Amino acid sequence: MALEHADTQLLRAIVAQGRAIGSVGVFLRENGQAELGYWLAQPYWGRDVMTRAVALLCAQTFLRFDVSRIFATPYTANAASRRVLEKAGFSDQGATQTHGCSRGNVCLYVLDRPDAQV
Q: Which domains does the chain possess?
């Protein structure tokens, strides 16, 4: 996949039997963090496809970019998406209100760089 902004994002297609069934990506932010986003076609839900893709992309992100943390903000009501993040090693930092979005509140999940000094 060609990347238009290879220095600020890392995107991957998820392919099964020659067809795109989802995508996962990270987008660098100015504060030394990266934001994670993903989607997966419904027939592939519940098969750990996205958990594996998220874990792999996060490992690649820490190797490729100098970021201290990767974060994601799934909707509070989206238990499956939240479980993907938990299984990939993210920690739940709590719920927060969204602004300008009618789909509900979100939770902040974070994954710190494994070699970060605490």
A: 9-112 (3.40.630.30)
